Every structure is written in C-alpha cells, then in structure tokens.
Amino acid sequence: MSLWLADSLQRPAAPRDWRTRLRDWAEDVNLVPDLGQNVGSLTWFRGLATCFGLCATALYLSPGFQPVPGAPEPLLTPAQYDEVRSQMITPLALGADSGRRMGATDAVQPLKETPERPQIELNAQIGSSDTLARALSRAGVSSGDVATVTSMVGGDIGAGVKPGTRLDIILGRRASRTSPRPLDKLNFRARLDLAVELNRVGGVLQVTRVPIRVDNTPLRIQGVVGDSIYRSARAAGAPPKAVQAFLRVIAKQVDLGSIGAGDRYDIITEYHRAETGDVEVGELLYAGFRRARGKAVDMLKWTSEGRTEWFEASGVGEKRGVLGAPVDGARMTSGFGMRRHPILGYTRMHAGIDFGARYGSPIYAVTDGVVAFAGRHGGHGNYVRISHGVGLATGYAHMSRIAAVPGQRVRRGQVIGYVGSSGLSTGPHLHYELYRGGQVVNPLSVKFTTTAQLTGSNLAAFRARLAQLKGLKVGTHEVAAAAPTAGAQAAAGK
C-alpha cells in the first residue's frame, strides 16, 4: 500500500483539455464582481471592463430603430367600395355624423323633392345686454318680421325686455326654399304686468295684450340679529338686494362692526307680485335699526327738489362734502399764493389752484349750487362761477367750452364745462377758485359739507309717508331673539 501511494505521487498528472482549464480559470477569477466594493482594485477594474464589454456587445447586436417595410393593401375598386359601404354600419356607429351614406340598392328610389315640416316650434331667451330684435334674429325670424314685431310692441317693452324672458316662437311654412319661414306666433312677457301674444291672421301679424294683475304692496321684514345681521335678515326672507341696500344705508349712521346679537332691524322694500306668481324686488324704501341699548335709526328715501336721497326721521338729509378735485385724475400744478405770472412776467397773487388735465376733460361742480356767471371773463377766459349759499362760491376758469347757463341749478358731480386754455393761459388746465364772503381763499384750507333739511309741507308729507310705511304689516317671519343664530317664528300684527 505504501509503495502504491509513493508511486502515484511520483507519476505526473494526466494532461487536462482546454475546457477544463477554462472552467478552472473562471472559478478562480471573478469576472462579475460587485462594483460597489473594493473600488479601485484589480478585481473592480476587471468587473468594469466586463460591464463595458457587455454594453458594447448589446449595442453592436441591437436591431436598430428603422421601420420595417410592409406591403400596402390594394385599393378597392369603386364597385367593391360601394358593395362594402352598402353592408357596413359605420354611419350608425358614429351617430350618423360620418358624412357617408348607405349604398343604394334596387329597392331605393331617389325623391324628386324633400317635403318640409309644416311649422317649427322653438323657444328662445333674452340674454344679458340683449334685445328682443337680436333674440328673434338668432331664432331664425326674418328681418322683415323682426321689424314688424318691434314696431308693434315697442311701446310695451319700454327700455327693453328683462333678461331671462322666454320667447315661445312658431315659424310657419315658407312659400319657397329660397324665402325665410314666416313668423306665425310669438308669446312673451313684456313686463311683469303685461303678456304679449302675436298671431298671423290672414297673412298679417296681429297683437293681443293680456294685462296681469300685480300687487305693489311694499314688503316689510323685521327681526332680531343673531350671529350676523345679513344671515339673520336672509333667514327671515329678505331678498339679497334689499339686505345689501339696507346695510349700505345704515353703515352711514352706525358702525356695522358694532352690531351684535339682540339688535333689531326693520326693512321695507318695493315688492311687486303678479297673479302668475312672478315677483320683482324694487328699491329699498325704509331702513330701521334699533340697538338693544342705544339710539334708534330711522331712514326713509325721499325726493326733494329733484334729488332723491335718504333722510332721517327728523327730516335731515345726508351730509355731502365737496369733491377732492373738480377734474378726474388731475394733478395740481400750481398752488394758492404769490407767484411769478408765466405770461405777464411779474409776481402777483395767484388766487386759486391749477389742475393740469387733458384738453377737453370734463369739469365737475364740486357741490350743489346755482350758476351765478357763465361766459367770457377777462383773463379767466371761459369762466363759470357757482354760488353754494352761506357766502360760499366756486369759480372755474380757462374752459374750452361751457356746459352751464346762468341761473341753472347744478348738482355735485354735474358737468359744467371742459378743460381748455382760454384767456391768459399757457396750456390746457383748470384754474379753480373758492370764495368766502366774496373774497378768495385757499381752496385747500376750506372743508365744508351740505345737508338737506325738509321744512313746511314737504316735511309734513315726509312724516306722513314714514308713518304709512311703519304701519305696514310684517310680510314674512321674524327672527327669534332667543336663538344665537337666525331662527324664525311667525310675526303678526303691525
């Protein structure tokens, strides 16, 4: 046994083939090591070379991105296409909007003339900033019938038909295919109290007016403020338009932020209800407010001397102050005081302030008054002077054109002329002066307001109207005072 072992150790090993040697080498050498370990070592570089080699081989063997050519299908002959079209259901699948038609067979015969519908019934609606004529034209009514309709009902619609009004239209049979369809019937609501119906009788349009009874009793809503006066009033049934107008009026008398739970509101607004159930909310007539502890506010809209404004129960109107500037967007180019005159060349008193503005810009009266002078006035050029009472007056000079006449009563913000450069002037601007007791004063040093005061028969009529409105019965529910939010309970009595 020992001799055999010694002999086997002394004999050389049998030669191996190349496959065995390659397998043994691959086991000893790792060609795909982890490139995240031993970075920079010989093994790592060997793995990197393997990665690049595999990528290069993949790119070399890639098929590319060129399209694969294919033979197109042969085109159908007209006979084949007509046969296929007569059997397909494409028009039905696409909702008959493909533009194709079914292929005709022997059972189909063309019509010599397509019959028309005897009449077309349609509905249209008056849009915002729309007119009756435009709405009818869009609906397909001929221009001749539109002109006839507007001439027949022009006096009924006044300033125009209310947006959203529905038009029921029937168009009749036309005489030929080249002529428009005639208007056979038209129904619409011209006003809340009037419905209009037009019918074609004997080839001529005739109008029938149907009066509608309307109840014009004002709507009164009273309630107690919960967490919000707006939400409380809306929950009590007050229209949004009336609530918004009410808040604008009382905001001039009380601080809206100080209104709290327990305060009471009283709203009276114009309210028009037709027998058909349609309703129109008009202007706010009365605004009342009572604090749980504090003063009460009673405001009534009243027209005095051609001006409509809000008056307190005592007959005192709104306070109106002067405008900041008699020209919109103007800049002050020269102040009040001594200065060197740009034309005369010496220093003298500048008895007003100048506003630079474009030629032709409108000039406004700064407050109510009566035109005392309007015309040419020396170096002032075209000049207007307005008397405001209590010794106050204002002057407007260098106008290009005067838009007021002596003796005319003007309101605050009314146009009395236009900016120019008449008289001693170097360019278009407005020279504005203020007089107190006949003497010029600095316009920037005087701040005054005007307040209307009712007296005599006007005051008596005002108080009678106020008593009449306050005697109206409450028309909706009244907000419960105990609820923290706007709850409602039925209100009765006056």
UniProtKB/TrEMBL annotation:
InterPro entries: Cell_wall_metabolism_enzyme (IPR050570), Dup_hybrid_motif (IPR011055), M23ase_b-sheet_dom (IPR016047). PANTHER family: CELL DIVISION PROTEIN YTFB, PEPTIDASE-RELATED. It comes from the Bacteria. GO terms for biological process: proteolysis. Its cofactor is Zn(2+). This is M23ase beta-sheet core domain-containing protein. One of its GO terms (molecular function) is metal ion binding. Keywords: Hydrolase, Metal-binding, Metalloprotease, Protease, Zinc. Pfam families: Peptidase_M23. The lineage of its organism: Bacteria, Pseudomonadati, Pseudomonadota, Alphaproteobacteria, Sphingomonadales. Residues 348-443 form the M23ase beta-sheet core domain. It comes from Sphingobium yanoikuyae ATCC 51230.
